[in-house]
Amino acid sequence: MAELIGNLLVAQSGGPTAVINASVAGVVQEAKKHACIKGIYGGMNGILGILNEQLMDLRAEKDEVIEALKHTPAAALGTCRYKIDFKKKPEKAAKDMDRLFQVFEAHDIHFFFYAGGNDSQDTADKIHGEAIKRGYEMRVIGVPKTIDNDLPHTDHCPGFGSVAKYNATTVMEIATDVSSMATDDGACCVVEVMGRGAGWIAASTVLAQRAPGDAPHIILLPEIPFNEAAFLAKVKSVVAKLRYCVVVVGEGLKKEDGTEFSADTTRLDAFGHPVLSGAAERLAEIVYGKLNTKTRSVKLGYAQRCAAHYASATDAAEAAACGEAAVRAATEGKSGYMVKIVRTQQSPYKWKTDLQPLKDIANVEHFIPRDWISADGFMPNEKFVDYARPLIEGETKVPTEGGLPKFAVLEKKQLPKTLGKRS
Amino acid sequence: MAELIGNLLVAQSGGPTAVINASVAGVVQEAKKHACIKGIYGGMNGILGILNEQLMDLRAEKDEVIEALKHTPAAALGTCRYKIDFKKKPEKAAKDMDRLFQVFEAHDIHFFFYAGGNDSQDTADKIHGEAIKRGYEMRVIGVPKTIDNDLPHTDHCPGFGSVAKYNATTVMEIATDVSSMATDDGACCVVEVMGRGAGWIAASTVLAQRAPGDAPHIILLPEIPFNEAAFLAKVKSVVAKLRYCVVVVGEGLKKEDGTEFSADTTRLDAFGHPVLSGAAERLAEIVYGKLNTKTRSVKLGYAQRCAAHYASATDAAEAAACGEAAVRAATEGKSGYMVKIVRTQQSPYKWKTDLQPLKDIANVEHFIPRDWISADGFMPNEKFVDYARPLIEGETKVPTEGGLPKFAVLEKKQLPKTLGKRS
Q: Cys-Cys with A248: which of A125, A216, A330, A404 at CB 3.0–4.6 Å?
């Protein structure tokens, strides 16, 4: 195979994480080692920016700024939830695809890296397929990213370790608070965390337990239908024993009929999912109303997925390595794959990157196995703990200025547009 | 004056902070230097535990555990919201006071330190007065503590610097998230923070601003009545300019008629205040409903007041110093004072401790001066920033184990009870 020479384009998609920028840093730093890669470009706001020909020159960024991306949260290139939907909107999708390849051609892009979750890997797969169909020589590699940890085939997703570390720390700290306030009247706190379909994030707060009686005392997972009576009985018994109870709930908790516990069907997001809000607030009302136990709620929301100030060093290193591996794979002629993480040893924890065909990833959701959860459904068990514990090891070093974190700020030098406006 | 010799009792009261244990460490470490102080005891759950004769022996704790209290959040001795209320319940209050002095006598306690906010300083003042009335030789010194920063006469309260640092960091991180997700459709996030009466906590998130356009873009303070039309116009103009908007709201935001924006009058706390919840959630509904801008909410709740993993080193040092100063004052014969922090130099920031009569503190609430807030009421100005900035400097060093913070765990060796049950 003749060596492919051209420009590289990297973009980010979907919800941010604390370490998705580390993957971009990995892509850029690795790309600079390969002579076949000329321009190194970033797409602004994912596919949406590429469609609008909004590209930035990442070679124009200082080396130290690229390195600082490794401790900078959220998507420094910008992200989007835009979907090229061949099923529901085939005409628009076909038009989008034409436009994407016009942009690729106009900017001589032959290496494309897309960091994202299920939907984004689907987009990457479609671009890979289109490139073959169109005879356009292109190497497309997906970079895994999602706090939700719901991608299949990879041991875990970059982004998950950091949200797990931050949330488990927060649960530990909240437990010191609630327990120190607890008198014989009892006290309860419900902490709502992200996770619409899979409960990996909620489950990971189990890592806060070090000794018997430690919080969290109940974890409500989207995988286990909510049973109010069993839940209240459990809260009651925990409060009777410890005087306090810390409950963690994944936002996507389901009722027994399969509908979402806290879905507000009047509000839909860009993918048509109902906006979820207030699972903790509703649970707090139930506990207070039925048990008369003082109950407060915490909703970490966006705070949890961008908490770089206490990110997992393991996670950040893996995220960067996934970016590097993607570039290596592409320069070796691979296309149509997602980088995955393979656990090669449990203790001490060792891992490596490998590749999985994109078609195996797209739109497949990976749930917590039932046998990783206690029989009563309220707590992940030792299998889960063994799996998750290594992923939160180590603290990212974040420089500070005036007592607050100092994050990378990209210049975002835009490439001149050569095409007309997107119609 | 003949030297007073006896045992020391320290207790914690009210809502926890990230550094209230640092004050206890300061008390214990300083007490060990004074021969006149024999036993060093801790009251469990504040006044409530003392009434129940639940005392622990702090000399039985290892030195390194006491030192570790400086990075351990919440009230390690336990806390309470119990109030000795001579106004509303004079008979019960008189009975409580009798019982307290029985406990003091039974355990030869002549040095009493109470770390807390307004209500707790009031309790300390009453105990000081009663001791004089009863001719019981007792040195009572209050130690300031409150994330709310609403105590008068002290430059600021230990606990405030840490919540300010954590919340400002969280706002910075949320801003990276929301801004990276923002497309032309606009995006908004409302972050709810604590602060029922005074808006110091909400205001302190202004420290997250480093460059023009930085979040937070709007801060809603309890001191400034909420004007929905002005608020929506401001959100709209920020989104039009930046494509996103981060709003911070203090939970105690007031309507123009003086009632609380989000008060649930069906639920009262132990002091008879209505339980507040959901200011952010309600604001998010208003923004989405009126402007059709995608809006998410975050409610930090308990997470913010016990976030030792990112506490302010300045705050922790001051909290410890307040505990030390309290013991020194008592051994010098002082009683009926609260330790306060005096700012002796603005730049570089310098401070010292001093004393203020407890009667000046009790039940007085300190608000943000109006001229520290912008004319439109949506942002603290440079005067506030100059005041608050030094308080968040430095990061407490928190050891970790398995990727999570390692906090002090007290043995809590209980003193034998010598009295009968409290009637």
A: A216
